[in-house]
Amino acid sequence: MDSTKSADKLAEQIIEWGEAHGMETCFERTERLKPCPIGSSGACCKVCHMGPCRFVGKNAEEEARGICGATLPTVAARNLVRMIAAGTAAHSDHARDMAFTLLAVANGETKDFQIKDVRKLYRVAEILGVEFGNGRAVNDVARDVALKFIEDFGRQKGEINYLKRAPKKTQERWKKWGVATRGIDREVAEAMHRTSIGVDHDPDHLLTHGLRTALADGWGGCMIATDITDILFGTPRPVKAEASFGIFKEDEVNLVVHGHEPSLAEMIVDVTSEPEMIAYAKSKGAKGINLGGMCCTANEVLMRHGIPTAGGFTNQELGIMTGLVDAITVDVQCIMPSIAELSKKFHTKVITTSEKAKIPGAMHVEYDEHRAKEIAREIVKIACDNFPNRTTGGSHITDRFPVIAGFSHEYIEYMQGGSWRGSFRPLNDAIIAGRIRGVVGLAGCDNPRVQSQGIHRFLATELIKNDVLIVSTGCGSAACGTAGFLTPEMALENAGPGLREVCEAIGIPPILHLGACVDNSRILTILSAMAEEGGLSDEIGGMPGVGIAPEWMSEKAIAIGCYFAASGVPVIFGGESPVGASQEVTRIMTEVWMERFRGAMHFEPDPEKMLALALDYIDKARAALKLRKYEPGRFGTERVLMDMAARREIEKAAKPHIGIY
After folding, report:
1. Which domains does the chain have, with CATH numbers?
2. CA torsion through residues 307, 313, 317, 322, sign
3. Tens-digit pLDDT profile for residues 254-271
4. Could you give the CA distance from residue 569 to residue 439 in angstroms, rounded to a whole number?
5. How far is residue 513's CA from residue 309's CA, in Å, rounded to a whole number?
6. Calpha distance 273→231 (Å, rounded)
7. Rounded distance, CA 242 to CA 244, Å?
8. 207 near 578, Cβ under 8 Å?
9. How far apart are CA 545 and CA 617, in angstroms?
10. Which of these, 230, 366, 434, 528, has the minimum number of CB atoms within 10 Å of its CB?
11. What is the mean pLDDT of the segment spanning 473-492?
12. How many C-beta atoms lie closer than 10 Å to residue 360's C-beta?
């Protein structure tokens, strides 16, 4: 990889333009602000006012003590558990809001939302043990489902509902090692208690509770948020869209939705197409309204409506620097406060919308689900009113890339046989035969500490070249999308012959966009379905699959990585380890977790070594399962999966498939 700050050439162009005009972004601040070498490795404790205590020296692991007597392994473990708790709280607070929105819809308290996927509601109701047959009203079912979800936040004993979705053997491991999650809020609160001054000092004991808290995120908050969003806004199916800074239009009002909570964004999607709003935009001199996304809200509206995306975390400042963004709405998580100050150099209005988050210098229009469309129209009008204030300044970009997004669990099941024969058998068979070597979840943030998006792109191309199917979420999806990687043509040009054969037969890209960062839960349910299908591992652990977060930066990423490790997936994070100062904590997270849960968590800054470690895990899993040894180039001519014509014949008896191919 070269020395540029971003692997995205268009982003690099804007960065250079900004530097020439004296504008500071996260990339310049990264060069100026170096990470603390003590704190970044987990060797600093500041949970009480006797400190902060720093653990330094060659023998710090064995000899160093804080003022209270805490050891380095204790401190490193505490720091990691606090990151898990924060990440879990972030995802789960999002899920809580979605649960109360679903309840409001069921109770008829908001007129602007309705249940769009009744089939998904019933599927969820069945899992939760909620009655949905015998002519029961849809809203009554939705109310009981919402209340079941809300119970999982405050549950004090027992287990959260969705743990039962995991393979039985995986559940048995959780019970054996005491990590089965009781209640989401309880685990987060207990994590903060255990890591406060003078409580839990055993590193293994601390990290075990960290995994219990992380499971509350993956099988609780994330999974709840994903399912409710599908119920209210529709379960994603593949859609065509576009990605890059070129999505902004010079002759239209450009409004960007940025953040993580999709409810307001859904309303903005609705109102931007209203004749009254379009007429309002034209009255301000614009030809129309152009809606774009940023970060995970972008993924939400991309996979359901085909709304184009300008990219992930490190692109938010650069989007404003195009000079074409009339307004950008932000809610929670991964919002750089710098955008408010940067916007003053342009005409852009930054609008905060969550009662939980304000930014000095930004406008605030607070979202209320009971007046959702009214607030959405207010925001659209603010953007329209600002259109005449646009100047010619900015780094205008015209290039954009096609994207295919929206591969939900349900659609992946459908695409392997249709409505009547949908299953995960073809995927399992392709892995068993060696056409697909394994599966990698390529996820996580993009990070200016490295060449932003560069490691994502390197791993994406190398993995599919080695016949590894990729499922992507969050800013990992954005990195692939803005590179032009999310198309079926990518398979023809870059994938290994076995993977290419499978992609051609089914009609899919080699990198499947699964959604936002909360939608990592889709990977959990897919892995569970593959285990249930048979022929591979009878639990999530032992599957030829790996999770990789090559450019992570958020505490949410740590929570995600830990819930995958606890579920049985080896996970590789890029960069230096936040617990690297302690060999004991590192050993627990790799060796001990692998022995107990068949998952582990590694930190590796070298992209080549990350690739090698991922392929080694996959090949060892294949060998342990006694699958055919992977042979590069073995396949390429013989087709064994149904092509689209054959699948459509199966569909004739069902309702017509509405899709893109």
Report:
1. 72-233 (1.20.1270.30), 239-389 (3.40.50.2030), 406-643 (3.40.50.2030)
2. negative
3. 999 999 999 999 999 999
4. 11
5. 13
6. 22
7. 7
8. no
9. 8
10. 366
11. 93
12. 7
Residue 355 gets which letter from DSSP? T
Q: What's the start-to-end Cα distance of the chain, in Å?
A: 35
Question: What is the CA angle 495-407-632, rounded to 5?
Answer: 20
- pLDDT band with cut points at 50, 70 and 90 for residue 420: low
Kindly tell me the burial class for residue 32, based on how many C-beta atoms sit within 10 Å of its own C-beta (0-12, 13-18, 19 or more).
exposed
List CB contacts of 449: < 8 A, sequence separation 6 or more.
30, 35, 551, 553, 575
Q: Report the DSSP pairing between strands 570-574 and 600-604.
A: parallel
CB 311 within 8 A of CB 478: yes
**pTM for the structure as a whole:** 0.94
Contact between 215 and 181 under an 8 Å Cβ cutoff? The reply is yes
Tokens linked to 424:
């995960």
CB neighbour class for 58 (10 Å; exposed up to 12, middle 13-18, buried from 19) = exposed
Its sign, for the CA torsion 61, 63, 67, 70, is positive
State the DSSP H helix or E strand holding residue 532, giving kind and residue range, or none if neither.
Answer: helix 520-533
Encoding tokens for residue 601?
A: 């968590």
Region of 485 on the Ramachandran plot (φ > 0 left; ψ -120 to 50 alpha; else beta): alpha
Q: What is the SS3 assignment for 441? A: strand
Residue 491's pLDDT is 86
Question: Within a 10 A sphere around the Cβ of 458, how many other Cβ atoms?
Answer: 18
CA-wise closest residue to 88 among 200, 187, 16, 161: 187
- Average pLDDT rounded to a whole number, residues 286-305: 97
pLDDT digits 0-9 by tens, 346-403: 999 999 999 999 999 999 999 999 999 999 999 999 999 999 999 888 888 899 999 9
| C-beta of residue 254 within 8 angstroms of C-beta of residue 248 | yes
Residue 232 token pair: 């209210």
d(CA 1, CA 20): 24
Which of 641, 243, 295 is closest to 405 using CA atoms? 243
**Mean pLDDT, all residues of the chain:** 93
d(CA 460, CA 427): 19
Q: pLDDT band for position 58 (50/70/90)?
A: confident
Question: Which residues, 6 or more positions from 141, have their beta carbon under 8 angstroms from its beta carbon?
Answer: 121, 122, 125, 130, 131, 132
418 Cβ partners below 8 Å, 6+ apart? 647, 650, 651, 654, 657
